[in-house]
């Protein structure tokens, strides 16, 4: 199930809220787990078993690691086993197809490619499983004694399928003890709505242009820019909108989930971009890969190696296809360059140019990211910089005319000033409040219209 | 939280947050109540499809996910103010500068949606075809022409947006259907005559397409008829042999269904009726006899184009007992052919219409059994790109 759907809004949302606030305190986590599994099973009626198994295995491992607190060898054996199980599942379900098909291509053999459907959210909850085991092992947080509480951490539906990736150490106390207040509840509803607007009104809209440019292939310079810019804002509003919805929902149940996006497109270096984009993923890699590898404390050569490892893994985490690895490697190169010399240069040049560099770097990155076929992606990048295709064509001009306003609005909404302006309006007396509320309702009605439109599917073939 | 605390807590909230939260939750609750308790419609005329029936719960349905899909479809199909929301969406898209709606480029085959064109016209967005369906269909038609002994005429019908390009929105990209036409001509070679109606239907000569429907209109169908007669060496019945009866009820066609809005003006429809009546009868499914070929009941419905022959089915035979030339024309067709029948019926004793999408017998046997003397395939180019008919034409 996704949050931006009619079934979620009209049924699941109300039911889970009602149930949660009606059951007594000691059953609240159980209620969340039940609804979370239902939420998961809605899209994955079979793989929910995998989810439950993961919960049981991780829970038991957590208890063992806790019990072996003074016997590090035994604790280490358990954690290694636990992490291997989790990575093994992720590897099988997500990467087996890629590995076998690549092996076949390289060797000319034809080992049958395993056809496994990717369980929803496995990339996210696997990382949270690992966070649990490691945090318990490091004694940063105690293991959960009660499996329901552990399941609340791992399967809590707001962050289950697309993050934010919450570190166990950050959520442990909240799972055991939290306070729900109307203040949080109403602010959470607003945050959820903001995310809904981003996803439905901006991301879904821009997706059509991005897909159209992809479908047509071999774009002109203008068309390539329009398509990739549409994707640039689509993915930002899609993903940050989802995070807003998750954080808002968390608040409605008394939780405080970590922020995941902080206006990434205003960054003035690629390193800064990654401190503002999908922050919880970056944080996870820093905490559980980069620092354990030695981080930046073992000399420049090791730092460079560590950065390269982290970024290629980050790339591959996004999808089982080589363009994602290339995308990760691309960022590895940029970030290593910034670490070596570029960073100092960026601080010296005017802000506009360091912003331009960072933004164009991100846009080029999305071109690699959005084309599974690497050569097609590279062709589009070549077209963007005038090395392939014509300067303009009809789709490029048409996109500029018909999507220009949407793109401008998207760009304006992606900078901090937009939020500040809305906030100033809301807090500037009665008239401002009225305008703000009216605007909110207009966006809400338009979002509903868009969701209903999605369900509308004319079947006209019978008439052809 | 305790009830006595609620009052305290209200004070801490931002008042507008609290009001909007309550309002939104009430809206959702209203939506849920509506879906559960309001009376349901079974059929959506706008979409020409049955709406999702109440989901049935069973273990198998849940395990394969079909129950959940059914619930989601049910909620979408029976949502309150559905048509108003959809119209509002179209209008908001238009206001934001969009000049096309309904595109879905990740579908297979990709769906381009509809352009808002000039003069109140809606147009199909034509895309290059990437599935190979056209090539297979064209090859199958060429094979058909080679395999049968009667003369074969292929008439690919261009879309309105192909013929009225100057009405499209500024810079609107559109695929050129002449590419398919040329390819069909190449494949057919000497075996069949490929009738070129692209120039005849161009807008410099008139408006040959409905504004809200993807079909050609009465006049477009006549142009195509004239062109086909020309290639067949038949004298066409002149258009002024007909009275053009105006359909009085407003007509909103298939393109409107893809771009439902508040601002669309309705279309006009004319039915050609011979001034000197002839004894023309339709045999539905080849057997069930009807007087004439117009199904008036469809004029009361949304799907008015089905007034011709009552829509599409596997086989229809139209006999004209006042034409005694003994010529029997077989037409492999989609619905574009339907509006040509009022004209073609004046030239052939029998017309056998086969819609391969619904026909599951051997066409070649049919030709032998019925003593067919001429064969034509009348298909819109778009249909040949989107739907495969190749497997129904395999030569056995």
Key words describing this protein structure:
heterodimer; A: 464 residues; mainly alpha; 3 domains; 19 helices; disordered C terminus; B: 396 residues; alpha/beta; 16% strand
User: What's the oligomerization state?
Assistant: heterodimer
Total helix count of chain A? 19
How far apart, in Å, are the first and last alpha carbons of chain A? Answer: 34 Å
Strand elements of chain B, count: 15
Domain count of chain A, please report it.
3
How many domains in all of chain B? 2
- What level of helicity do the residues of chain B show? 25-40%
* Sequence of secondary-structure elements of chain B: HHEEHHHEEEHEHHEHEHEEEEEHEHEH
Distance between the termini of chain B: 77 Å
Biggest beta-sheet profile of chain A? none
Helix/strand-derived class of chain B? alpha/beta
Beta-strand percentage range of chain B: 15-25%
Helix content of chain A: over 70%
Ranges of chain B where pLDDT stays below 50 over 5 or more residues in a row are none
**Count of discrete alpha- or pi-helical segments spanning 4 or more residues of chain B:** 13
Shape by Cα distribution of chain A: globular
The parts of chain A where pLDDT drops under 50 for at least 5 residues are 460-464
Q: How many β-strand stretches of chain A?
A: 0
